[in-house]
Amino acid sequence: MSQEESTDWEKRWQEGNTQWDAGKPSPALTALFENEETRSLIPEHGQGLVPGCGSGYDVVFLANEKRHVTGMDLSKTCVDLLVKNHPNATANNYDFMCADFYKFDAPNGGYDLAYDYTFLCAMPLNLRPNWASRYSEIIKKDGVLITLMYPIDEHEGGPPFAVNEQL
């Protein structure tokens, strides 16, 4: 099963079915930067990736003059909206691409930082080993993966699909 088969993200974006959109960067992400100890663990420069970036709030938050961040989404409608809503993205050191996380070409050398906010829980259980393998391929040896494991429960169906310590 491919990511495309698991959920029709294009249809959701076309219908405006984006109830996950909070209108701001993830509170978990901003909290990491508010704490000096955790902020020091995050690479200040290099290449960053936010797969399943939605409306791009986390991409904008993470980008700085030393760190270029790419937001990725599988939905062309989503990426078209991102490009429209962020006309100065390049000048602010970020961009957006429409791509399949499992198949796109990562930059030479890989990413220094990847931020996975609820991207894992969008994956059905059978895709999770591929998720882990793919991150190991695209993140530099000394790179950092920040991920929020949500929702930690045993509910049926999704997305979001249930996440627990073993899965």
From TrEMBL:
Annotated GO MF terms: S-adenosylmethionine-dependent methyltransferase activity
Keyword Methyltransferase applies: yes
Region (Disordered): 1-26
Protein name: Thiol methyltransferase 1
Key words of the record: Methyltransferase, Phosphoprotein, S-adenosyl-L-methionine, Transferase
A family per Pfam: TPMT
PROSITE patterns: SAM_MT_TPMT
N-terminal signal peptide: none
Family annotation (InterPro entries): SAM-dependent_MTases_sf, TPMT
Gene3D superfamilies recorded: Vaccinia Virus protein VP39
An annotated GO BP: methylation
Superkingdom of this protein's organism: Eukaryota
Zinc listed as a keyword: no
